[in-house]
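Q: Convert this sequence to structure tokens.
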Amino acid sequence: MKKRQVVVRRSDGSTRSMSNTSSSAIRAIRYGECQKNHAASLGGYAVDGCREFMASGEEGTADALNCAACGCHRNFHRREVETAEVVCEYTPPNYSRR
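A:
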């Protein structure tokens, strides 16, 4: 499993006593090559060579879980989760008059 972390920090360079920090995680799930063993009943190992999951139907339907290329269920495809963590630090401007 690959894990990617991106940290973004923003600041205007000044030092103020008040600052806000927010953090959020962005996850993208992608399904890679098919790992279904078609020769398991014969005691062997053979995969069909499907490189990437492509849904057969619209999202939310039963066909969305079947691959259009190889016809198997999405669970047979290797799951790749990419996580990006974004951290934003914000210091509000000081509008007080001196």
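Confidence is low (pLDDT under 50) at residues 8-19.
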